[in-house]
Amino acid sequence: MATTQTLFTIPIPPLKAHPGGTITCTLPAPQTYLLTISSPPDNRLTPPCCAALLSALDQIEFVHATSTQGVVITTSSIPKFYSNGLDLELALGTPGFVEKSLYPLFRRFLTFPMPTVALINGHCFAGGLMLAMHHDYRVFSGEKGYMCINELDFGSPLLPPMAGIFREKLRPDVYRHMVLEARRWDARAALEAGIVDSVEGIEGVMGLITERGLATKGKTGVYGLIKEEMYRGQIALLDATGKDVVNVKDLMVADLKRKKEGKAKAEKAKL
Fold first, then answer.
1. Interatomic CA distance for residues 213 and 70, integer angstroms
2. Adjacency order of strands within the sheet including 116-120
3. pLDDT one-digit tens code per residue, 188-217
4. Cis peptide before 79, with omega less than 30 degrees from 0?
5. Which distant-in-sequence residues (6+ apart) come within 8 Å of 250 by Cβ?
6. Would you state the pLDDT for residue 1?
7. 1 within a domain of the structure (yes/no)
8. CA 174, 175, 178, 180 torsion-angle sign
9. What distance in Å separates the CA atoms of residue 96 and residue 50, rounded to the nearest whole number?
10. Strand ranges (DSSP E) for 30-152?
11. What value, to the nearest 5°, has the Cα angle with vertex 110 and ends 162 and 78?
12. What is the CATH number of the domain that holds 79?
C-alpha cells in the first residue's frame, strides 16, 4: 500500500562507525502512523537512533494526533533488515546507554497510548527483536528474513529487562528455544510459535487494524494505563535504578569470579 502523506522526518545523527539516517512518518491511512527507520546498513539501535524514535513517538502523540486514537507501525526502508540490534562494543562503551536510551525506548513502546505494530520486513536480531516484542503486535513481511535472539552465539548474557519481555509474551517452550538454542525463526515458524500475528506484510497490518478495530482502541484515553498494569513486571525491570541496575560487565565479572572460585574448590577437593 503506497503512502500518501509525509507528516515529518527526524534525523538520526551519525555516531562513530554509524552514518546515521532518518525516521520518517507517513500516513498510509487515516489515524495510521507509519514510522520508517532508515539507518544503513542495518538499523542498529544506537543512542541517536533510540532518541530519534522517542522523538517520533512524541511527535505523533503530542503534535499530530488530535486524540489518542490511531495506530503506530514501525518498519524499515532497508529490505534486508528490520533491525540488527545493538552495536555491542558501542553499547558497552557508552556509560548509561541501556538505562538512559534503550530501556526508555522499550518502555515507551510498551506503554504507548495507541496500539503499536512492528512490520518486520527483514532480519530482526537481538535488540531489534526486543524492540519488536515491546510492540503490541508483530507482522512479518515476505518470505525472507529471520528473527533471533543470538546473544548465546556472540557471548553476551541477557539482562533482566531484555529477557523479561520474552518471558511475558511467549510460551515457555518458545522462550527456551529462543534463548537457550538461539533458534532462528522464519516467518512461518514465527507465526506457528506465536511470536508474530501475521505474515502478510503491510496488507496483514491493515487487515489486523481493521479486523480488531485497533484505530479506536485509544479513544477513552486509558489504553496506555491498561498496558502499564498488564506489563507491570516488565516495566519494573525497565525502570530499575541505582543498585538495582544490572549490566553486562557486572554479570561477566561475577561469572568469572564464580568460575575461579569453583575451580579452586574443585582442585582442592581432588587432593
1. 10
2. 6-12, 21-29, 32-38, 71-76, 116-120, 137-140
3. 999 999 999 999 999 999 999 999 999 999
4. no
5. none
6. 45
7. no
8. negative
9. 13
10. 32-38, 71-76, 81-83, 116-120, 123-125, 137-140, 147-148
11. 75
12. 3.90.226.10
- Using alpha carbons, select from 94, 227, 248 the residue that is nearest to residue 160: 248
In a domain, 269, yes or no: no
Q: Nine-digit cell at 163?
A: 529477557
Q: What is the per-residue pLDDT across 210-245, written as a single tens digit (0 to 9) for each?
A: 999 999 999 999 999 999 999 999 999 999 987 778
- pTM comes to 0.94
Task: Provide the strand spans (E) within 56-172.
Answer: 71-76, 81-83, 116-120, 123-125, 137-140, 147-148
Please check whether residue 251 lies inside any domain of the structure.
no
What grid cell was written down for 257? 569470579
Three cell numbers written together for 91: 553499547
Half-sphere exposure of 3 (CA within 13 A, CB side): 17
44: which DSSP letter? -
pLDDT at position 263 over 90: no
Q: How many distinct structural domains can be found in the chain?
A: 1
By residue range, what is the domain housing residue 136?
6-245
Residue corresponding to grid cell 487487515:
207
Question: Could you tell me if residue 192 is inside a domain?
Answer: yes
